[in-house]
Structure formats: structure tokens, C-alpha cells
């Protein structure tokens, strides 16, 4: 069987040409492409300000800092995410307070938030997981009632909408990421968007060692970082962004093909569900194994041996060794997240997969599930 990686970026000739031009220009950092990428991004998202940074994680760090989060604060978030969303809260000295997820969308369940609010709660960090928006009306209501800030982790969900509104436009600030497995890539990179001039200026300063707003050489107003995005990456991002709508349409088609192929296997596999009012931008295509006697990790190994790369998606953050030790989390603390972590599986998903490819991946997966079931069952 031909090998199927989990993800693969879609890079065309314009991107290659553009990066080459940057290299030939000799202007490799803090040049014109950074501004061009930021301006195009802000326009695309319909937001006044965009600040490009060296990664999504760096973006989350700065967005939290610039929103005033600090030591002693608590930030409500989800344990079912990429580790960076919770880590970034720790970077500013605040404490991530987890709430369990909705078992259907895998997004944090707003109904669980209120019981976790204390005097120290200062913000909610919703993560739009896998390309689908969190139920934002309830989050906004809660934030208003308790005077909490909202910082969106939109790293997996560029282009997704909630009730017709773009993900990333609901709070103080939002962050996108451009690692090569995301919908668009800059190699490494991220973007902070905000409608606050103050937050935008602060982020722009903090990413560049805390230099003064006018970027006067060697004047440092704050303790800053080097979170700059270089010109090659910015140029790559600028050209990828032009394709965003098309890229998402292709991903939607691939997702629909997968979902159709699984239609007659509903007893074994549950497919992604799109909540009413949402459009999905498909960072990954994640299925859930329905039968608890199937050993998911064995499925991953068997498929890998056949050239099909799949991945447990995602492990719950609260059960990582570092979080267990620091906060005393244990198995059973967030049952819906843990169940998703045990039975969810991301499948090969990238532009270039043909209908036949998806057909053969699904066929192989179904066969493998039966194998993993039998072997486990006999033991
Ligand atoms: C990709 C991602 C990030 C940022 O990742 P970087 O590798 O730092 O760009 C943050 N949060 C989530 C949920 C992500 O999926």
C-alpha cells in the first residue's frame, strides 16, 4: 500500500517563488513582508490589528501578557488541547483551571465553567478544537457576568465560523498558528489578532525585545522576547493566505468523503459532528472508536506497519506528568476529555488525497479495528 502521512503542507509555485525572492533580496528579517502578511491577515479576518510572531505558542504567551494576565490569576481552559494552550497560561505565572469537554464536539463545555470561577479567575481561554468553534454565546455571557477576558486559541481553526462570525473575533485577542500541519503554514509561525490598539502595540513591542513602539533602535520599554517572524516565513504566509478559502474548501470535500465512507460502520466508528451554527475548517479529521474493547494504540501500530500514519488525538493535558506533579491531577478528573483521549484517532488528512485513497484508508482501518478487537478480546 502506498504510504499515507498524517499531514502534508500544500505549497505551490507562487510560495516557492516568493520565498526565493526574499532570499535574493537580502532582507531576511523585519522587512516589508512582515507588514504585508499582517495587513493581509487583518483584512482577511476583518479585524483592525494583526501581529505576526514566531509560533502559535509565542502568540498565546504574548496575547495573555498583553491582556494583563499575571501571577496569581486563574484562567479557565480545556484539558483536551495541544499542550501549548495550557502552558502559555503558566508562562505568565497564572494557573490553568480545566473544565471538562462536550463529548460530541470535544470543545470545552461552557456549562462547566461557572463552578470553577473564583475571586482569582481573570480570563477564559477557549480552544476551538480540530477546526470547529466553541459554543461562544455562553462563553461571552459568562465573561460578561464575571468580568472575565476572553483570549481565543484559534490555532487549529482559521477560517471556521460561529453563527456567521469568524473564529478569532470574539475576545480581547486571538491566536492562530502556522506549523506545517495547520490549514496554512509559514514553517513555524503564528499570528495574534485583536481590535485593541493597545494590545496590538504591546504585542508588537514584546515580540521584539520590548523595543519602544516607534521601534527606535536599542530603546527597550519592557522585558521582551525574540518572537519575531522572519521574512521567508512571512512571505510564505502571505501567499498561503491567498489560498485560504480554496484550501478550506478542499479540506471540507475530503472530510465529506471520509464521513460518507464511514456511513455503514457507525457501530465501530463515530465521525466528527458539526454543531449547529458552525462551519468547520478541518485542521484534522478525527474519528472516535465506538467499541471500548478495541485497543486504539494497537490500531495505530498496525496501521503504521501498513504505511498509514494515524495519531491518538489528543492526550489530555491534565494527565501529563508535569501537570500531575504540579497540580495533583489524576485519572477520572475530566472523564469526557479522558474518554476522547483514549478512543480518538486522527486520520491521514491533506490536499492530494484522492477519493480512492480515502476509500482504501477506510477499508484498511475497518479491517484493522476488527483485528485489534479480536486480539484484545481473546486475551
Ligand atoms: C498548533 C497549536 C498551537 C500552537 O502551536 P505552535 O507549534 O507553537 O505554532 C497552540 N494551540 C493549539 C490548540 C494548537 O493546535
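^ C-alpha cells above, recovered residues below v
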Amino acid at each position: 500500500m502506498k504510504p499515507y502521512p498524517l499531514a502534508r503542507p500544500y505549497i505551490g509555485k507562487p510560495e516557492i517563488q516568493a520565498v526565493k525572492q526574499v532570499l535574493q533580496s537580502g532582507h531576511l528579517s523585519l522587512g516589508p513582508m512582515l507588514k504585508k502578511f499582517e495587513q493581509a491577515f487583518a483584512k482577511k479576518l476583518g479585524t483592525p490589528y494583526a501581529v505576526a510572531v514566531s509560533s502559535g505558542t509565542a502568540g498565546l504567551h504574548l496575547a495573555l501578557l498583553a491582556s494583563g494576565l499575571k501571577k496569581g490569576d486563574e484562567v479557565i481552559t480545556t484539558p483536551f488541547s495541544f499542550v501549548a494552550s495550557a502552558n502559555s497560561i503558566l508562562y505568565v505565572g497564572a494557573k490553568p483551571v480545566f473544565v471538562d469537554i462536550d463529548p460530541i464536539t470535544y470543545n470545552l463545555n461552557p456549562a462547566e465553567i461557572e463552578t470553577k470561577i473564583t475571586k482569582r479567575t481573570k480570563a477564559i481561554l477557549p480552544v476551538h478544537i480540530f477546526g470547529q468553534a466553541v459554543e461562544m454565546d455562553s462563553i461571552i455571557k459568562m465573561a460578561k457576568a464575571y468580568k472575565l477576558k476572553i483570549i481565543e486559541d484559534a490555532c487549529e481553526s482559521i477560517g471556521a465560523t460561529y453563527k456567521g462570525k469568524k473564529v478569532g473575533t470574539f475576545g480581547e485577542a486571538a491566536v492562530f498558528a502556522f506549523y506545517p500541519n495547520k490549514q496554512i503554514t509559514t514553517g513555524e509561525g503564528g499570528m495574534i489578532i485583536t481590535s485593541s490598539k493597545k494590545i496590538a502595540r504591546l504585542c508588537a513591542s514584546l515580540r521584539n525585545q520590548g523595543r519602544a513602539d516607534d521601534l527606535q533602535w536599542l530603546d527597550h520599554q519592557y522585558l521582551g522576547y525574540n518572537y519575531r517572524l522572519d521574512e521567508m516565513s512571512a512571505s510564505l504566509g502571505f501567499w498561503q493566505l491567498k489560498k485560504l478559502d480554496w484550501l478550506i474548501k478542499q479540506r471540507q470535500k475530503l472530510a465529506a468523503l471520509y464521513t460518507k465512507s464511514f456511513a455503514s460502520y457507525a457501530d465501530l466508528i463515530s465521525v466528527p459532528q458539526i454543531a449547529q451554527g458552525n462551519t468547520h475548517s478541518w485542521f484534522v479529521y478525527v474519528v472516535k472508536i465506538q467499541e471500548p474493547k478495541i485497543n486504539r494504540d494497537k490500531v495505530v501500530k498496525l496501521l503504521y506497519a501498513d504505511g498509514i500514519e494515524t495519531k491518538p488525538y489528543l492526550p489530555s493535558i491534565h494527565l501529563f506528568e508535569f501537570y500531575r506533579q504540579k497540580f495533583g491531577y489524576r485519572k477520572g478528573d475530566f472523564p469526557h476529555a479522558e474518554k476522547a483521549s483514549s478512543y480518538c484517532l486522527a486520520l491521514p488528512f491533506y490536499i492530494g488525497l484522492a477519493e480512492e485513497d480515502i476509500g482504501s484508508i477506510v477499508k484498511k482501518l475497518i479491517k484493522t479495528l476488527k483485528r485489534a478487537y479480536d486480539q484484545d478480546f481473546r486475551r
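The radius of gyration is 21 Å.
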